[in-house]
Design brief:
Helices cover 35% and strands 18% of the residues. By secondary structure, the chain is an alpha/beta fold. It has two domains: 195 residues, Rossmann fold (3-Layer(aba) Sandwich); 65 residues, rRNA adenine dimethylase, C-terminal domain (Helicase, Ruva Protein, domain 3).
Length: 277
């Protein structure tokens, strides 16, 4: 499609550049992004601006985050017809203070991005940091990483990542994208997802306690939690809060992790040698 015409541009694999190059997929994505004409969209890694050009008529403003100077020059020309609605930051998204942008615009932000695998984890936790200022997040992630962050109650392969993320976000996969839809073609398929800030179902009095409990529970995945958490809880204490000490971490629900985190006392928090998270 479009990218093949830009033969002068050298794709930089070190920056994780894989550009969506399938018009059907792009149109499908745009139909699923719920936006109004007074919304502000933050697009991470705008590439050649194909999605930007098609979606710009439907929003109040688009803030483009792009670190490739060649692409920035291209975008300024390509999107010249709507330059008043566009703000471009030449910066790593992880170094941008979103709260300043949201406060200046006096609006919640909607995110969109085709995310390189090498920054996926950092980006998710960056989003969590600024969740108060975000309305929705629409992202394309590689399937392997998507499976790591999607929390399913009876899923056997629950892990530290999806437990913590579930506390903050509801994640819904929307559709799968073939690796053939990208240039250059990645090794695995991708998934288009929507992430929504969730209303907290379970109270946690200290989020660091929750991180500690989850980290220690999954430290040695094949061990039972009575062993992994022996420096924090006795078997009797686990039984008193109706948590089976013979369970492995993957059998524990988010609600149960929250209960345990609220029972960590100041004393055993400080004397625990695994304090750092």
């Amino acid at each position: 499609m479009f990218i093949k015409k830009n033969k002068k541009f050298i794709i930089k694999k070190k920056k994780g550049q894989n550009f969506l190059n399938n018009l059907y997929i792009i149109q499908k994505i745009i139909k699923l992004i719920k936006i109004k004409n007074n919304d502000i969209l933050v697009e991470i890694g705008s590439g050649f601006g194909i999605i930007t050009k098609l979606i710009i008529l439907n929003v109040y403003k688009i803030i483009l985050i792009e670190i490739d100077i060649e692409l920035i020059f291209f975008l300024k020309n390509f999107l010249q017809f709507k330059k008043k609605k566009i703000l471009i930051y030449k910066k790593n998204i992880l170094k941008i203070n979103l709260s300043n942008i949201a406060k200046k615009e006096k609006k919640l932000l909607i995110f969109f991005g085709n995310i390189p695998y090498n920054i996926s984890t950092d980006l998710i936790f960056y989003i969590i940091k600024y969740l108060y200022y975000i309305k929705y997040i629409y992202i394309v992630l590689q399937e392997e990483f998507s499976n790591k962050i999607i929390y399913i109650v009876n899923k056997k392969k629950k892990g530290r990542l999806n437990i913590i993320i579930k506390y903050y976000l509801n994640i819904q996969p929307l559709f799968k994208i073939s690796k053939n839809a990208f240039i250059p073609k990645p090794k695995i398929e991708s998934i288009f997802l929507i992430l929504k800030p969730c209303k907290k179902k379970y109270f946690v009095n200290n989020i660091n306690n929750l991180k500690l409990i989850v980290k220690e529970s999954f430290k040695q995945c094949r061990k039972k939690i009575k062993n992994n958490l022996k420096n924090i809880f006795t078997i009797k204490q686990l039984e008193l809060i109706q948590i089976n000490p013979n369970y492995r971490a993957e059998n524990i629900l988010l609600s149960e992790f929250c209960i345990m985190s609220n029972l960590i006392t100041i004393n055993n928090f400080y004397k625990n040698k695994y304090f750092k998270i």
